[in-house]
Amino acid sequence: MYIWEAHPNEIIWDVKHHSVEPLLLTAGADDLIQLWRTPSLNEINTILDQENENSKLEDKIFQKSFQLSGDSSNQIETPTCINWLNINSTNFFACYNSGQAAVFDINKETQVYSFDYLENTNVDCSLSQINSMCIHPHMNVAITVTEDSSI
User: Fold this and answer.
1) Where are the alpha helices (DSSP H) in the chain?
2) pLDDT of 28-70, one tens digit each?
3) Mean pLDDT over residues 125-140, rounded?
4) How far apart are CA 116 and CA 83, in angstroms?
């Protein structure tokens, strides 16, 4: 048995495997979204056989980290849910505890679009946390569910 530490000592809020590519996204309480390569079982066994203190499975399959960019308000931006976009298989959608959402491109390694759920700044920000979302299978549409019970 092997315990994979994607976000060491942190809660993992969401995990999504790509529908076609051998890729996995993880969203952690360390404010990072990480992209992992999902190797075959034979490759995993080979890596584990060669594993030592200096080389772990995580080091061999880790690809990139993504973090929300934007204002420098010192507000913690923790990803709460993630999902691959069906229209563009190199992009994924991420939602955050602050009510922000963003689209990232894994090839360009950048954030390509973002928006805030709350336009009214007088509302309690803790209620804007996006807890869940789904992506339409054929259109560029995402549906989010927030802490204030809004869809």
Assistant:
1) 41-50, 57-61
2) 999 999 999 998 888 888 887 887 666 678 888 999 999 988 6
3) 84
4) 18
Pairing state between β 23-28 and 12-17: antiparallel
Q: Looking at the domain 12-146, which fold is it?
A: Methylamine Dehydrogenase; Chain H (2.130.10)
Mean pLDDT of 73-83: 83
Distance CA 75, CA 85 (A): 27
Task: Cite the beta strand spans of the chain per DSSP E.
Answer: 12-17, 23-28, 33-37, 62-66, 79-84, 91-96, 100-105, 110-116, 130-135, 142-146
- Which contacts of 104-109 are long-range, i.e. CB under 8 A and separated by 24 or more positions? 104/33, 104/66, 106/23, 106/35, 106/63, 106/64, 109/64, 109/66
Domain boundary assignment for the chain = 12-146
Does residue 27 carry a pLDDT above 90?
yes
Q: What's the whole-model pTM score?
A: 0.85
SS3 97: coil
Assigned token pair, 82 = 């993630």
In 3D, which of 36, 108, 23, 38 has the Cα closest to residue 65? 36
> Which residue, among 129, 126, 132, 127, has the nearest Cα to 81 in the 3D structure?
132
